[in-house]
Write a structure and sequence with these properties.
The complex is a heterodimer. The two termini of chain A are 50 Å apart. By secondary structure, chain A is of the alpha+beta class. Chain A is built from 17 helices and 18 strands. By secondary structure, chain B is α/β, with parallel strands linked by helices. Chain B has 20 helices and 13 strands. Classes of the chains: A alpha+beta, B alpha/beta. Chains A and B meet through helix 1, helix 4, helix 5, helix 6 and strand 12 of A and helix 1, helix 4, helix 14, helix 19 and helix 20 of B.
Chain lengths: 512, 420
Amino acid sequence: MLESLFRNLPKVLKYVFLALTISILLMFTQSAFAKKEYEIGVFLLVSIIVIAITYLTTFSIPLKFFLPGILFLTAFVIGPILYTVVMSTYQYQTGNYISKDQSIERVQMLGIAPDEANTTFDVVVGKYNNQIAVLASDSINQRYLLSTSTEKIELSPSLVTVDENGVATKVNDFTPATGDEIVQLDFEISSTRFKYEGDYFIMLEGSSVGAVARQVLDYVKSADKFINLVDGTEYVDNGRGNYANTDNLEDVLQPGWRSPIWFSHYIDLVKDESVRNPLFTVFIWTVVFAFLTVLTQFALGLLVAMAMNKPIKGRRVYRSIFILPYAIPSIMSILVWGGMFNTEFGAINALLGTEIAWFQNATFARVAVILVNLWLGFPYFYLITSGAMQAIPSELSEAAAIDGASPRQVFARITLPLLLKIVTPLLIASFAFNFNNFNLIFLLTGGGPRNELDGQIAGATDILISYTYKIAFGSNVQDLGLASAISVIIFIIIASISLFGVRKSKVLDSFS
Amino acid sequence: MQKKLLAKSVAASLVLALVAGLNTVPAQAVDKELVVWADENRGPNLTKVFAAKGDWVSGYKITVRSFSSFDALKEAVDKATDLTGPDIIVGANDWVPTGAKNGKLAPITLPASVRARFTPNNFFDLSYKGKLYGVPLDINNVAMVYNEELVRNAPKTLGEMVNYYKANKTKKNLAAGLCIAGGGTSWGAHSVLSALGGSAYRMKNGAVDTSKPPINPAELAKNIKTYLLDANGKSNGFFPATDTGCKDNYLAGKVPFAIIGNWEWLDYMDKGFQMNLMPVPGVRAGTFGTMFGSVSGAMLTSYAKKRGVEAGAKDLLTNFFASTAGATAYQAIELRPPAEKGAQSKVEFTAQQNFGKAASRAGIPQIGAILNGTTGSKSYWDLLPAFWTAVLVNGRDPQTEARKMNEFFVKNIAAGVKDL
C-alpha cells in the first residue's frame, strides 16, 4: 500500500497541483464575470480548458512545457498590446471614460435642476394608498403637503400632527415608514419623483429632506438626442463620445462616453501642430539620449575594462568598486543623484563652487541626465567588454605587434572591430532599453524643465515614454486614447530595433 | 486502464471539491452598507470615529476603506466602476471637476439649514457647473510663521521682511528670507504672488471679478524687481524658487519667515516654535497677500444610487460630515480646522484657531474650475512655479513673463467662470 503510494506520489502531487491551479483560476473566472470583465473571464475559462486538456491527456507533450509561458505571454504581453492598440482607436480621455448607456443615465441625472428658490422640505417617508409617499413640511411657512408619484395633496396645518420643530409627522391615511423600511426602500425613495407643481417634483436628498426640482434635459431614445425642455436646445451624438449642441458644437454634455474614433489619434499625431510639434522634439531627444547613453556607457565601460585588463596593483578591489553602481538599486542611485544636483544644497554645486540650476536649465538638465545614466550603466558595459576581450585571441594582437603595429593601431584595427562584432547586439538592446528608460527621467527630472509660460508642452528631458505618461496621467486632463496611440508608435519602433538586434545577433538562426 | 480512470476520477473530484471550497461565497451579513473611501490619514481617523459611534445613519453599517496614500486613493477613484466604487469619497476639492466630468460623482442639494453651517466660499471648491457634489470637511490653508528668536515683532510689510533678510543674511547665515514649507510653489505661494500685487483671479462681492485682469504685469514686475531681485536682475535670495529644504531650514533657524500648511503645525510646535500665524504682508502696510482657503470634501458618488444606498449616503453626509457633532468628533482626532462653523467654535488648539484667523484676514476661495483649467493650454498649478523659475532662476524679464502668465490666467478665468 505504502509502496504503491510512493510509486504514485508524483502523479498524486501533479493532480493536487493541477486541481489547485484550476480551482484558483475558476475563482478568478467567477470574479471576472461577476465584475463584468468578460474578456478576462473568457480568457481564464479558455486557459482552464487548455490546461485540463494539456495536463490530463497526452494530447501534446511539448505543450506541457510551453503552456505556462504561452499563457503568461498572452496575459501579460499580447493582451496589453492588443488592448493598447484597441484603445488608441477610442476617444478615451477625461470626460469620456464610461459607456454610452452610463453616460445617458448620468446626463439625465445631471439634467435635473432645482427651482429658483432652491426650495426644500423636511419630509417623512411612508405609504399612502399603497404608494410610496412623502409628508412634506415647510415649517417656517407652515405649509404641508402629501405627495406620491402621481398626486399631490395640500394639507391644512390643522390636519397634521407636528413635532417640536414644526415638522409634520402624521396625517390620516399616511403610514410613516420605519427605519428598517426606509433602509430597504432606499433605491425606490431615491428614484421616485414626488409630484409637486407643474413640471416640478420633489426628489429626496436623504431620507428626511426633499428638494424641489424639474427635469431640464430629456433623452429622446428614438432619435438618440437630448432636448433642453426649457430652451429647446438639441444635443446630438457628435461621433466623438459626447452629445453636442447642434447650434454650437463646442457646447457638449458631460459626462461623455468612450467612443470609437478609429484613426483620429494617429491623424492628430501627423496633422495637429499642438500634438505633432512636441512629439517630434521629444522623439529627436529620445534618439539623441539613447544614442549618447549607449555611446558614453560603452566608451567608459571599455576604457575601464582595458585599464583593468592590465596587471595593476589592487585590481580586484578596483573591479569591485566599479561594479558597485550596478549593484545598488537604480531608483536609490537616481534619487541620490537628484539630491546631489540640487541647486541650493547639492554636492555637485558645492564641489564645483557654482550655482548651476541643473534641473531648471534645459542644457544642464540634459547633461545631468546623461551623466547619471553613465554612472548607472557603465559597469554593465565594463563587465560585457571585459568578458568579450577575453574571447579575442591574443595571437592576433601579438602578430600585429610583431608586424610593427602600434598599440593604438592594434586597438583600432583589431580589438575594437572584433569587440564590436561581439557586443553589437547588446549595444542595440541597450539602445532599445534606454529608448524607454522611464525610471531615470521620471525620478531625476520629471521630464523637465519646460517653460510653461512659453507654452511648452513637453519638457526638455522628456523622452517618448515619459511624455506619453504625462499625456495619460500627468495632468487633470488625461488622454488615454492619444497616449495609447503614441505607445503603439513606440512599440513599433522598439520592436523594429529589437528585431534588427536579433537578426544582427543571428539568434534566430539557431531556430531555423 | 482502470487505474488511469481512477486517477482521473480522483483528480476531477479534487478539482470539484476545491472549486466548491474556494468558491463558496460567504453569507452577506449586512445588506445595506455605506462605503467611505479615504486616504491613509483620514481613513483610520474616520474608522475610529465610526467605531466609537456608528449610528449616524440608522440601519446602515458604515465601512471605511483606507488607502495607503493620497495618490493610491486617487488612483482607486480613477479606476472605480459601478461595481467597485464607494458611496462617499473623502478627498481633495480639485477632484470635483474631473469626478463630475467622468460621471463618478453625483450632485447633492443641501437644505438652507445645512448650507448655513458653512461659509459660502466653502462651496466654490466642491461645485462644478452649478451643482454641488459634496459637503466641506476641513479647511486647508497656509499661513506665514516667523521665528521669534530672529524676528521679535510681526512684520508689517514685505519690504520690512526683505530688509531684515538683507541685513542679516551673512551675519546669521540665513538660507532664505521667506520660503514655502507647505503647499508648494503654486498653491502655497499664491500669497507671495498676491503680496506682490498679482493673483490667480480677483474676487468681488463673493464672485469672481472678470472686469479686470488678475495681474498688472508692470506693477508685478516693479515689485519683483524691488523686493526679490538684485540690481543686476538676479534673485537676491530672499524668496527661493523651490520649496526644497524650507521646513528643515526654518526649524534650524536659518529662515526667518516660512509659509506652512495647517496639516503640519504640530511638527513646528514640537520643536518649540510659536504658531504666530499671519498672512504674508503686502508691499503696503495693512495689506496682505491672499491665500487659498480650500476645503477637503466628503463627496457623494454616482455609485451610491447603483448600490441602492443613495438616501443613506446623503444622510451620512448631512448627519455626520456636515453636522457639528460629526465634524467635532472627527476633527478632535484629525486635528485640522473644521469647515463646519459649530465645530470651529469648539476647536481647542491655538494653532488651528490661528490658521482660521489668518484665512479670515486674507483668504480667497480655491476655485478648481479656474485653477485646473487648461483652456490656455496651461493651468495655474504649472504656470506659477514656471514664473518663479523664469524670473528667479533663469533671470528672465519679470514684466514679459508676468504678461505671459496673465494671458494664460485670463483665458482660464474666462473658461472657468462658465463652469461655476
